[in-house]
What we know:
By secondary structure, the protein is mostly helical. The chain has 18 helices and 6 strands. α2 (43-67) packs antiparallel against α8.
Amino acid sequence: EVGGSPEEGSPKSEESKFSSLYVRTLSGVALALGFGVIIRLGHLYCLVFLLCIQAVITRELFDLARKTVNMKTEDETKDLPGFRVQQWYIFSVACFYMYGRLLHEIILVEVSSPNSKATTAGKVLMSGLWFVLKRHMLITYFLYVIGFVMGVLSLKKGKLRYQFGQYASTIAIILFVLVQTSFFVANIFDGLIWFVLPCALVIVNDIMAYFAGKGFGRTPLIKLSPKKTMEGFVGGGALTVLLSIPLSEVMSRFEWLTCSRSSFAKENLECRYSQVFEPALYHMTDFIPSVLHQFQESWLSYLDFAFEVKPIVIHGIFLAIFASSIAPFGGFFASGVKRALKIKDFGDSIPGHGGLTDRMDCQCVMAVFSYVWVRNFVDPYSLATAGLLSRILLLDKQSKLALFTRLGYLLHGQGVLPAKVVQELNKIKV
């Protein structure tokens, strides 16, 4: 083959494969170690890490959107000055909205803390945050309007097709990448385990599916990814579900993974979901829909045996089922995009692995599911609490005091608060 790649089986080909495998292994180990160190450092470092990942993926996709229409950076800068700034402005506004919504309660604790107002600078900062917290939606809307007006004013004759194409790409990138992965933010502060476990299960499934496919793969799974096989998909899924049991069990033993954070202060850890990590008694019929319980007297009664396990293990199994059955479709979707654009990788951020986008396609899908799962089956009341706090912030001072005292009386009537607290409440002038 003249001018082509080395023939398969030749010494050069084997050397190239070994070199590629060496680079992939080295960068993969470095990435895993770095990820482990960041997780151990705690919630805030994970938050910054997630924001950096989002920024890198967004940059890769912005660059790819420009390359697909053969637009050079220097030409764009010359013909459309400030156009890239507009795209990053949209990204920033989306971050402001998503992070503000998901960190609402954490920020509320911070602005309410007396320690944060100890200095003049602290008072100014907290009063600014308080205003942002109260008017977050309104501020986001005005920031959007500014971006919209900027975009319309920047439209240039002869470049309209390119500009609208880039705007459409920007919106798609924000929705698929930023919005979906931002749901990990809430999971991080609910406890690092709800961030680490879903991510780990996606990685485990990727590895298990690879080995299962290599060993037993015969039947093609989907045309978008010709190398994927049905045997690899099913085998990888089964192994992922099995491995989720010891993985969940081990992670549940570390408080720095299981405890949630109530503020940005490093020492403020709260183990709100401690019951999730303690052994509990289950019956097999607990997992059968209530509609079918009418048959319990017959054949379903044979399934009514009890077993003891930590609830986190049950949660881990369901997360693993999703990670192995639905999350891979994020990868199939990304494969379809690459085939459409006739590219191998989305970027070259990770040596030997392509771009960060190539490694995060399934994680984007997993982020939303893990958030929905935690909100529905682990902490179903958090969304209601956040909504109430948002409404309370909009009340005037007198109404807040009235609500506070009435709530105190109600809690005392239910035996939650002692009589001493009621005596103090009576001193408040409403």
